[in-house]
Amino acid sequence: MPHYGRYDSTQTKKSKEKKERAKAKSNKGNIEQTDNQFIIKGTNETTGTVVETRYNEATILYEGELITARLKKGINAVCNQTVFPGDIVVINQEQPGEYYISNLIKRKNVLSRTKKDSTRNNPNAGSSHNVATNVDVAVIVVSAKTPPLHPKFIDRYLMLLQDNNIDCAICLNKADLKTEEDEKILDIYRKIKIPVIETSTIKNTGIEELKDILRGKQAIFVGHSGVGKSSLTNALMDTDEIKTSHVSEKSGKGRHTTTSSKYYIWDKNSSIIDTPGIRSLDISNFKPNEIKEYFSEFEDWEGRCKYSNCLHYREPVEGCMVKQAVKAGIISRERYESYIRILRDVINDRSMNYDEVR
Ligand SMILES: Nc1nc2c(ncn2[C@@H]2O[C@H](COP(=O)(O)OP(=O)(O)OP(=O)(O)O)[C@@H](O)[C@H]2O)c(=O)[nH]1
Ligand SMILES: [Mg+2]
Ligand SMILES: [Zn+2]
Known about the structure:
This protein is α/β, with parallel strands linked by helices. It has three domains: about 1-105, CATH 2.40.50.140; about 110-115 and about 125-275, Rossmann fold (3-Layer(aba) Sandwich), CATH 3.40.50.300; about 290-355, Probable gtpase engc, domain 3 (Ribonucleotide Reductase Protein R1, domain 1), CATH 1.10.40. About 25% of the residues lie in helices and about 20% in strands. It has helices at about 1-10, 15-25, 80, 150-165, 180-190, 205-215, 230-235, 320-325, 335-345; strands at about 30-35, 40, 45-55, 60, 65-70, 90-95, 100-105, 110, 130-135, 135-145, 165-175, 195-200, 220, 260-265, 270-275. Magnesium ion binds next to helix 7.
């Protein structure tokens, strides 16, 4: 595969080993043990990067080659719930060509699709909701027209990324189909200082800008099916090898072409994880009064409302500073409406009249 060949050409084995040793050194003293007896530690043994996981085995980029490895015998866990693309793992070879994952290097972070909770506070524990690890930046990919751009998904994902402490950027792909309405939606995020990139893999525009943002980082593309995550991965890699498929004309939705997350190296020290599209994001374990904390533009007004623990929801507009700020155009109405939509989903309330903030 040409993209892993590129890995070879940019990093010699020696320089890789040196780097791994430095990495291992910096991880020393971080020995922890998880429920499944998988010890997280720094090591001077040889390590590889998890590219893709299946039920009981994983593809690992190891010494410039792709190998298949299983968890060491005796580790009471399945591969695809224990290691994730982006993980650095220790590899042992018991027989020639028979590789085992014997250990895991302490993770920088984990991108999980559910909110952090007591069982997830340890980023080194495995979970079936985890998507990838050691992520420097997550790119929320959305598209113009097919499927249409809607702030709801972006707002939910922003909450989750904040909860995971992961930097984010928004990429509007299919910019060749962009409308004025899309432009207005993107402005909401530019205003709250989130990097917004516009790309078209068909017209080959915005790709260099995307590369500039992702260079030197371990990044991940997340988003709905059919928005073009795999097309963008192909564009970064300058290939067309990764499978893509058109959006259904009938439903306007993607076909869930990518079925598992996969790690690719597209430039020196620059990797991307392409993920399967998701239908919706589960935010049910956020508490109602926590949601406002993820809307940074409310911060200036927090604690100034007349009501203690104001949710800025059913409280009368006269005493709610957030509502007044929306009314005055200081807080974007779209973000406020997004906040209310998320809150309503969490508390399972379907009715809200926005007229009072108009
Ligand atoms: N008009 C237009 N179409 C695009 C662009 N980029 C991708 N597409 C098309 O969008 C469709 C979906 O692209 P994919 O890359 O398979 O989407 P995905 O996000 O990987 O989808 P899943 O793997 O199902 O999550 C394909 O038919 C692409 O040709 C673009 O910039 N403009
Ligand atoms: Mg895909
Ligand atoms: Zn309020």
